[in-house]
Amino acid sequence: MKKVVVVAIFAVLLGATAVLAQEQAWPEGKTSAFREGDAPFVIEGIEYASQEAFVASGHKCATRPVDEMEAEAIEAQLEQWRAERPWEMEIAAGTIKTVPVWFHVFTSAGKGNVTSTQINNQITILKNAYASQGFDFTLAGVEYIENATCYAMSYGTTAETTCKNTYSKDSSLYLNFYTANIGGGLLGWATFPWDRAAKPKMDGVVILYSSLPGGSAAPYNLGDTATHEIGHWLGLYHTFQGGCTKNNDYVSDTPQERSATYGCPSPVPDTCRKDAGKDPIYNFMDYTDDACMYLFTSGQATRMQSMATQYRPGLQ
């Protein structure tokens, strides 16, 4: 009987040590806290049946979907460009691209006034997330704009078009970063780099103002909504794009994922069992909580570098 008790105690201690080691391995500011997905979930005054229901509603990221035909065409164009300019890719691999960020802060009746501390902290979050991917972020400027229409704009609306056309800075040189109370449960959206040439003033990212670091949109208030949307701006898809299909997100080292993940599940699920590797829930391009996200893969870094070199040469 004593042996059984000793073994049981040892197992508990071993498990606790493993959990502690996992916690200590996470980057600074991140925790492995698991958020239950079956409780009512409220964000910005809107209640959903659960956090899973929030994600399933499509209300996290409104970046436009790219169908397989368009994705294949973009991929073919990228591969051709790489083949024709191998020297540019060599240069890109060894340099840091600086991204000057213009903040356009839309406000209405005193609401939406993100602080300078939040903006500076957001830049720091981006620096940390993208440093090893070959990108640096600097603050180019901030403007506070009292405009009720822009403050409440939604994706694909006349308001979005009007506000961007009015306030956009030169998108060949800057990342236009708009904050607003975008409504509908949305956290943000972005434009893809290959869309900029046709509509340069629409280029940029739009972020729910309360998702900036220190905002009220928990658990999406550590600044990684911006990290996620800028990933799109630099040419990345969601990790779950294409589900368990071969091409998936067109990055070879992100394991396939059947659908978006919410919270920060433990153990890590494996929804595409034929693919090597469990779901990439810690990747910035999934839908997990900010506290759960902390990495890009080397394949994603290469894709972003290629996309930036081809479509955003002003960043060099």
Task: Spell out the blueprint of helices and strands.
Layout: H1 2-25, E1 41-43, E2 46-48, H2 51-56, H3 68-84, H4 86-93, E3 97-107, H5 116-130, E4 135-146, H6 148-151, H7 158-167, E5 175-180, E6 188-190, E7 205-208, H8 224-233, H9 298-311
Parallel strand pairs: 3-4, 3-5, 5-7
Antiparallel strand pairs: 1-2, 6-7
Helix pairs in contact: 4-9
Give a description of the structure.
The chain is of the alpha/beta class. The chain has nine helices and seven strands. The strands form two sheets. Strands 4-3-5-7-6 form a five-stranded mixed β-sheet. Strands 1-2 form a two-stranded antiparallel sheet. A hairpin with a 2-residue loop joins strand 1 (about 40-45) and strand 2. Helix 4 crosses helix 9 (about 300-310). The longest helix has 24 residues, at about 1-25. The radius of gyration is 21 Å and the shape is globular. The model is unreliable at about 1-25 and about 30-35 (pLDDT under 50).
Helix content: 25-40%
What structural category characterises the helix and strand content? alpha/beta
Estimate what percentage of residues fall within beta strands.
5-15%
What is the subunit organization of this protein? Answer: single chain
Q: Helical segment tally?
A: 9
User: Alpha-carbon distance between the termini?
Assistant: 69 Å
Which strand order do you get reading across the main beta sheet? Answer: 4-3-5-7-6
What's the alpha carbon Rg, rounded to whole Å? 21 Å
Largest sheet: 5 strands, mixed
Low-confidence stretches: 1-26, 31-36
What would the average pLDDT be, to the nearest integer? 86
Backbone shape? globular
Would you list the SSEs in sequence order as H and E?
A: HEEHHHEHEHHEEEHH
Number-wise, the strands total 7
